[in-house]
């Protein structure tokens, strides 16, 4: 049987996925970061490059539902002053992993929103702004919290399936944490990239493997809607004692981390979408060349005249033959800039003027 082409596949996956709100939780004995047990019982689809049958799609749906039922109760909304973000509880006594730019600095008051409507008080602990990792502790006494196990981000491989959960646009009491299914695009010691869609409010939320283990924390969006960045969970494990001790260090993407000597007034922290370039096109993940497989309605790409099946030849007058070389170049532009995009469409070579946008405008 011929493999289903990726753009059709992704639409089919979204149509077939009907994720139920879960109530189960995972239990452990200590807040120490322990790698969860490895299971080999995943359906065969998770060892294939693409689904090949309705059964494969059904298996994706069923396994995703299992993961979501297990981990959604641990995925929380965070409010720090006027800043909103997401996080994931990873211990029974209420330690939460999130992004550094969500908490801003150590020692701040945090309100935690659980999916069942429970609100809890907490404090921000340590943060590393070099890689955008941060920690929060629930301070409510004598309670046991649902929590997720930690996985091993160092064992991830390109193409593995994953599940992103968070609160896009901030926590809403009328809505459960939002689920997106995707694949791992690349892995390094300091960053995991996936094609799971992220928007403002998702920052700090968890990226799970298909066993329901935390493998990353949402950090920032990429220049394309399907190319986004997560902090590898192993970096939290490597700096665990410093985070617990409320140390703050690094400069990184979001400014210098702060460890206040006295409580600081609440102040907003930047969302991951601020000033991030956005184009509104999707490149074929199965093609080495930069070939467009989707153009989002009302996006900068659609307004510029980009079409499905266009092959991008150059960006900002610089030639690009490979998708993986083009993506970092897209990231270098700022919203409002106008750049020339040269594409091959059939037998024609066409130059288009595209005005870089922001994802919040979509």
From TrEMBL:
Keyword annotations of the record: Hydrolase, Protease, Signal
Signal peptide: 1-28
Pfam families linked: PDZ_2, Trypsin_2
PDZ domain mapped to chain residues: 277-347
GO aspect biological process, one term: proteolysis
Top-level taxon of the source organism: Bacteria
Gene Ontology molecular function: any one: serine-type endopeptidase activity
UniProt record similarity statement: Belongs to the peptidase S1C family.
Protein name: PDZ domain-containing protein
Source organism of the structure: Tuwongella immobilis
